[in-house]
Amino acid sequence: MSEQSDSQVVAQPGIHERTNDWNNVSAVIEWLNGIIWSSWLVYLCLGAGVYFTIRSRAVQIRKIKSIFTQMFRGKSSEDGVSSFQALSMSLAGRVGVGNIAGVATAIGFGGPGAVVWMWISALLGASTSYVESTLGQTYKEKDPKTGEYRGGPAFYLEKAYQFTRFGKFFKVYGFIFAAVTVLAMSFLLPGVQSRAIGGAVTNAWNLPTWVTALALVVIMAFIVIGGVKRIAHFASLAVPFMAIIYILAAIAVTFINADQIVPVIELIFKSAFGIDTSSEAAFGGIIGLAVQWGVQRGIYSNEAGQGTGPHAAAAAEVSHPTKQGLVQAGSVYIDTLFVCSATAFMILSTGMYRVLSPEGEIIGSGRGQLAEALETTPGEGWPQSGLDSMIPGIGGSFIAVSIFLFALTTIVAYYYMAETNLVYLLGKLKNPMYLTIGTRALQVLILIAVAIGVMNDNPSDAWALGDIGVGAMAWLNIVGILILQQPAFKLLRDFERQQKLGLDPEFDPQALGIKNATFWEERWAKMKAGEHVPQG
């Protein structure tokens, strides 16, 4: 008895030290997250969206027909994927845990009004997505080793001003973005997705987390080793299926609670703008948090301005960069206005939510006794409880499967973007062994991050790390495209001019004075020489 007591006394300080060490790490993560996601980033995201909307004459609204018709036009080639496959790859990255658990955290910390600010960030962000994705297409390159198209912010940051006096600065800028993206996509962000998978599977079926981790790692390994074409094929099959089924389930829940549709809409808008400070709409008292959490989770979900969309856009086979820029603008609508809204109505119409103050105190909750049994921390458990309240015994399993598919495709998209930026960093080195070793190391790193994420029982740290990755990329990319924006609007005017003439738009970089778009210069030269070039 005394030996046991002695061992406990000896062991106790070590336990406290490890706990304190982890608490210190968590404190540093939260501190860094607070700096990156200050009010300035919220202003930057919204301000850029407003500016690009005005500059483009609301392209995301005016060209809504072209946005949705172009999604299903064009075919893949030996080198590039179709517009629809590129859209699916983009949606694979956009439609993830942010659409389920992310919406719950936005409501939990920003109140129901955060949903309006997610919508606003999507509407404005669609114009930002057009600009960044069009630039991604414009300055894409053909990988000499694989023949696949690659592009993204690192590529256009370097190439747009390469032959000017600012060329060296933007080359360094592009290098920094690529390094940050590799870190974010391989380490900071996958843990959010895989942790949600682990939590949802445990909630639904009580499976050990190590089983979930092993299964996820095996599936991921098979997909990522197959390259871009396998990723595109997987995404084009999985993303539309899972999104449609999920939205249909949310619509079914909404119709079952049809009497709550009008009250929920009223609650959302009153909470967003602080119109009424009585009863449930007392959440309007935290309007600042509604804006912050709505924009933050909106960007985490739809990724407009983050710099992820241009990677998928660059992989598409099209005849004019604006075509894919419009398609990527539409992906923001699909992500936020459809999928995120489905989750929000599922949570709010069933009353399965609570709203927490910055100090963690409950300042409001949904209707009914069931909401009292909710776990305090917002996450995937809230929509699971909401759906389960309507369809007992099925809701938890359905959300678990949805999260598994959403998160899996998102992690796969993360790998593709990390690999693209690794190719940018190492692909031009004389010794190809560096890229081969780097690619294998990247694959191992993301698989380790996925496994650790599943086993992680602290969702706050997982979300904070993810927010750091998203925020750092958004800062670098939005500032970059505000500087480099001109080609995107030249291309928009050229696209509209050719459309008015009844032509299928083709891009001639020389005619528009867009320099260093080397892929398109070569393509135009082939066309003039009478050679066949793929159309899209």
UniProtKB/TrEMBL annotation:
Protein localization: Cell membrane
Broad class of the protein's primary localization: membrane
Membrane topology note: Multi-pass membrane protein
Transmembrane portions of the chain: 35-54, 172-192, 204-225, 231-256, 332-353, 390-416, 437-456, 462-484
Keywords of the record: Cell membrane, Membrane, Symport, Transmembrane, Transmembrane helix, Transport
Pfam families: Na_Ala_symp
Top-level division of the source organism's lineage: Bacteria
Coiled coil: none
UniProt cross-references to PANTHER family, sorted A to Z: AGSS FAMILY TRANSPORTER, SODIUM-ALANINE, SODIUM_PROTON-DEPENDENT ALANINE CARRIER PROTEIN YRBD-RELATED
Protein family membership: Belongs to the alanine or glycine:cation symporter (AGCS) (TC 2.A.25) family.
Protein name according to UniProt: Alanine/glycine:cation symporter family protein
Annotated source species: Brevibacterium metallidurans
